[in-house]
Specification:
By secondary structure, the chain is α/β, with parallel strands linked by helices. 31% of the residues lie in helices and 25% in strands.
């Protein structure tokens, strides 16, 4: 039997995870990534629920734990840095605002890539510029920016929320649901005053500042704010820095420190949104991960969706012809995705109140919830921060089956 082939666009988490599972089932896998190499940077991410079970089945759970950021919980602070409430990290596969397994995105990507590079062809510094699967029986003809033209049985787009390749496949679909929320991610030097807690300050007027530990001796910081203005993420770095300085000029706690680092620190600025697609497949092409069903960073579910989706899609492709496999992939994943994309009521505004009254109410609730006599309320707050990571029953797929 001829070895089936797949091209995967995107080398973050979903793409290499799909390559891992298809390699285990006898497929020939190629991953193309537009960047010149793996992006080792990135902020803290959670590995929860079904995603953690997939990691366990991949044999990488211990490697993830060894690369943990060391985050011990979540602490809300006031403008002077005084604690308002503290919640310990989860102790199960899914619980807590801080998951039991926290890792930097780039390090998780590296862990998976290292387990696939012997069997997977990685092509860095290139991208898809055209797709043709008009003749469904002959596969998908792919044209690359570097000039190569190749044919694959299946193509999977495992890119980000604003995937360019997705727009080639679904040109008339408005895939992104904007949440009116911007986040600037920075890596700054750690100081003696920093802790191993995820510390969060809501500053009013829809703004917040957070600091999170990593395992590299630095700190991952965010400056986040609500805005009805669209397109700020399309500005150049100087324009973004100007907006951040003006927006956070009067904010206390760690804001002056983070703003001072803007001249030199690595900076990534993102307009937060979700991918809402009526279908994730077309012909022999499928969407996976954020390109298909980004639930947004504030959901705590993007990594679990990426790992789980890769596992399900690979299992179905190995067991069925692509039309059946794609239909089963959508049927199995759609309820899980729908649940993951249902953000807690009021998100992201409830944690970033605009007015003084809303901020005062939030801080009061946090103080009560964080106090020892309020165990029940604290539990409710903790559950509010715990996403539905277990909301799928993972199938058991046999290995080394091939159907395409």
């Amino acid at each position: 039997m001829r070895t089936p082939t797949v091209l995967i666009s995107g080398a973050s988490i979903a793409g290499p995870a799909l390559a891992y599972w298809l390699n285990a089932r006898g497929w020939q896998t190629t991953v193309v990534e537009r960047f010149e190499g793996l992006r080792e940077d990135g902020q803290n991410i959670d590995v929860r629920g079904a995603g953690r079970e997939v990691a366990r089945r991949m044999g990488i759970e211990d490697a993830i734990r060894a690369a943990s950021t060391g985050e011990t919980g979540t602490e809300f602070v006031d403008a002077a840095g005084r604690p308002l409430a503290r919640f310990a990290a989860g102790t199960s596969d899914s619980g807590g605002a801080t998951a039991e397994l926290e890792i930097l995105r780039g390090q998780l990507s590296r862990i998976i890539v290292d387990r696939t590079h012997d069997e997977t062809e990685y092509v860095f510094g290139d991208r898809i510029v055209a797709l043709d699967d008009a003749d469904d029986e002959d596969g998908v003809t792919v044209t690359f920016a570097g000039g190569a033209i190749r044919t694959f049985d299946v193509v999977v787009v495992a890119e980000g929320l604003r995937s360019r390749t997705r727009s080639m496949i679904f040109p008339d679909t408005d895939a992104v649901r904007e949440l009116g929320f911007y986040v600037a991610y920075l890596t700054i030097p750690r100081t003696d005053d920093d802790t191993d807690l995820w510390r969060w300050h809501s500053a009013g007027r829809g703004r917040s500042v957070t600091l999170r530990p990593d395992n590299l001796g630095t700190v991952r910081a965010t400056l986040a704010f609500l805005s009805d203005v669209r397109g700020l993420d399309e500005l150049d770095r100087d324009g973004i820095v100007t907006i951040l300085r003006r927006t956070f000029a009067d904010v206390g706690w760690a804001a002056p420190r983070v703003l001072a680092a803007l001249d030199d620190a690595p900076l990534y600025f993102d307009a937060v949104g979700q991918a809402r697609m009526p279908s994730w497949t077309s012909g022999r092409v499928a969407l996976l991960g954020d390109a298909a069903y980004c639930s947004s960073p504030i959901s705590g579910m993007s990594t679990s969706l990426a790992l789980t989706g890769a596992y399900v899609l690979a299992g179905e492709l190995a067991a069925h012809p692509h039309r059946t496999a794609f239909a089963r992939y959508e049927a199995l994943m759609r309820p899980y995705v729908d649940q993951a994309q249902k953000l807690p009521p009021g998100t992201p505004r409830i944690a970033n109140p605009r007015g003084r009254a809303g901020l005062a109410t939030m801080n009061t609730v946090l103080r009560i919830a964080g106090s020892s006599p309020a165990a029940r309320l604290g539990g409710l707050v903790s559950r509010w921060f715990t996403p539905p990571a277990d909301a799928i029953e993972l199938p058991a797929y046999p290995l080394r089956e091939t159907a395409h």
